Amino acid sequence: MRYRFTARPARSALAGADPATEQRGKLMKQGIHPEYVVTEVTCSCGNSFTTRSTETSGKIQAATCNKCHPFYTGKQRILDTGGRVAKFKARYAKAQEKAGK
């Protein structure tokens, strides 16, 4: 079986055919969308940048950004909550001692 491919019709031919195509050139509805304002984002590491957001105060405090996030920097920070890392290291050291004997 052979398939026959045809060229797409020109845009002008589609303009009157489909109501969805006619909607493309129209503006969005007024009064239902939030207002975007220029916003200054400040990270806990001190990095700051300007963007647009729906935050009306114009300021956002972020915990991490692309300058300090471990995924982007390649550095991993270990947060020791409740001494879990220290406990693991102690158990691992005991296991290494037993394996070495």
Can you describe this structure?
A three-stranded mixed beta sheet has the order 2-1-3, with no helix packed on it. The chain contains four helices and three strands, in the order H-H-E-E-E-H-H. The model has no long low-confidence stretch (mean pLDDT 77). 30% of the residues lie in helices and 17% in strands. The chain has 101 residues and is α+β, with helices and mostly antiparallel strands.
Reconstruct the topology from this structure.
Elements: H1 11-14, H2 19-23, E1 37-43, E2 48-53, E3 59-62, H3 70-73, H4 84-100
Parallel strand pairs: 1-3
Antiparallel strand pairs: 1-2
Care to give the gist of this entry?
The chain has 101 residues and is an alpha+beta fold. It is built from four helices and three strands, in the order H-H-E-E-E-H-H.
